[in-house]
Amino acid sequence: MRWLVTGGTGMLAQDLRRELAGQDATFLGHAELDVTDLESVIAAVKDHDVVVNAAAYTRVDDAETDVETATAVNATGAENLAIAAERFAAKLIQVSTDYVFDGTATTPYPEDAPVSPVSVYGRTKAEGERLALAAHPTGTLVLRTAWLYGAGGDNFVAAMLRLAGRLDTVPVLTDQLGQPTWTVDLARQIVTAVDADVAPGIYHATNSGSTSRFDFAREIYQLAGLDPDRIVPAEGDQFKRPAPRPAYSVLGHVAWGGTNVAPMRPWEEALAAARAAGAF
User: How many Å apart are CA 158 and CA 156, to the nearest integer?
Assistant: First the structure.
């Protein structure tokens, strides 16, 4: 099986590289492949069996004013990869996000919940889902994930540890709930889903359970040997940012029940494993 991974220098791609060691896998960063250029995408996808689209415009706040670029990468790029994958009968894994929802729910979002993004980033990712599924309905898996952290990039875990070196106490939001997800577990879920020939459609690929940013930060400090009481509570109005964040980002995992692939393990187990593996 021949794999192509876009966004090939990113945090998720680095863990996919390890998961796919020994397999025929090509990793292309933006310098090697501009996903907004259809002809380049078609040439890159040719002769591959699986395409993982890990390329994305993820600067959530910048997207509010850089709408054209965010749309080109997150929406048009996804559509281009789906068009190419359909042409060559390849499977497409479209990595998406909890930001396609507005965060007003109080119970986990099911996979078939109507999308209702509240930011430009969320809208462009939702459009990418729609376009990819429309262009290649028989071969596209949309995997929504959230709160990613890993050894290969900047993320909430890394930020909390940086702040520990600068501040005596670190204010963290208590009113954002979600699912911290280790990129190693997401990479494994992608490979497992492909190997199991999971049917096309939408799946939620987050570590299970849920927590607040505040309790997540406390657990990071506990595992890192730092005093968790250095994390102090804050609320959203203390951190005004250009793009609104979903207050509730907990995703349900019902769709995996129709496959022979299990949902991902609890976030606490994944975080402890990440610490043991030296990811932070």
Answer: 5
Domain count, the chain: 1
With respect to residue 30, please indicate whether it lies within any of the assigned structural domains: yes
| Residue 66 CB-density burial (10 A; 0-12 exposed, 13-18 middle, 19+ buried) | middle
Q: Which of 142, 156, 137 is nearest to 60 (CA)?
A: 156
Query: How much is the pTM?
Result: 0.97
Amino acid making up residue 10: G
Any idea what the CATH number is for the domain that residue 43 is in? 3.40.50.720
Catalytic residue positions, numbered = 121
| Structure tokens, 190 | 């992608």
Residue-wise over 210-233: b if at least 16 C-beta within 10 A, else e? Answer: bbbbbbbbbbbbebeebeeebbee
Residue 39, both tokens: 């002809």
Is the residue at 66 inside a domain? yes
| Structural domain range at position 30 | 2-155+179-210+250-265
Residues 142-196 pLDDT 10s: 999 999 999 988 999 999 999 999 999 999 999 999 999 999 999 999 999 999 9
